[in-house]
Amino acid sequence: MASISDGIAGPLRKDPRIIVALDFPSRADALAFAGRVTPALCRLKVGLELFAAAGPGVVEELAARGFDVFLDLKFHDIPTTVARACAAAARLGAWMLNVHALGGVQMLEAARTALEAGVTRRPLLIGVTVLTSHGAETLGEIGLPPDPAAQVLRLARLVKTAGLDGIVCSAREAGILRVRFGTDFVLVTPGIRPSGVAPDDQQRTMTPLAALRQGADFLVIGRPITQAPDPVAALEEINNQLRAPL
User: Fold this and answer.
1) Distance between CA atoms of residues 201 and 133, nearest Å
2) Does residue 67 lie in a domain region?
């Protein structure tokens, strides 16, 4: 892709940095949360659970309310199927979507090409590297070298070669990736946990401000916000933390 932008043209708008993961079991729960926040406070992520429960319409509804929606379905299939899925996701109004880098360069390029042809508002397209729930042991179980950072770097090179906008990675790898790939390569980091918050099923975590200081562009945060006693207060507190000098 020639340049990173929000939609048709212009530089990438990085604020708000937080993407709240709407890991809710129903459309009603997701829309209730969306009704308590504004697009100025956060972007929103629709993942597998909510998409399976509510269908593609929830993406359209959230976009119609003015939210930037990250459609996190990690497409990974034959190139033609992934290309068509990406084109369909773009028509829903997604701001960003992802494909799995393990699909290889041909699949990644097919996804990119599909978004460059005939899409009115092109979403950002990023490649998933290594899940933040995966550590060395998990990689070994599936036959990969048990070094998450090395695997992330290898897959990031594939994504860059294929011309995508950036990757999903742990904030622990963000520093070296920023040095290797420059400021125009988008780094989206899940596994973000404020100080004192349990890591849950995440293994490679980092605090919000530390992630920004490592070079992350966007921070995906779910349960520390959505399951907090006061989710809006939790979101506002993290936003306040991110205003500290980098």
Assistant:
1) 6
2) yes
**Full pLDDT tens readout for the chain, 246 residues:** 444 555 544 578 899 999 999 999 999 999 999 999 999 999 999 999 999 999 999 999 999 999 999 999 999 999 999 999 999 999 999 999 999 999 999 999 999 999 998 666 799 999 998 766 656 666 567 666 666 778 888 899 999 999 999 999 988 889 999 999 999 999 999 988 887 565 555 455 689 999 999 999 999 999 999 999 999 999 999 999 998 876
Q: For the chain, what is the domain count?
A: 1
Q: Say if pTM beats, i.e. exceeds, 0.70.
A: yes
Q: Which amino acid makes up residue 103?
A: G
- Answer for the pair 21, 201: CB distance below 8 angstroms, yes or no: no
Looking at the annotation, which residues are catalytic?
A: 74
Domain membership flag for residue 137: yes
**Residue 141 DSSP label:** H
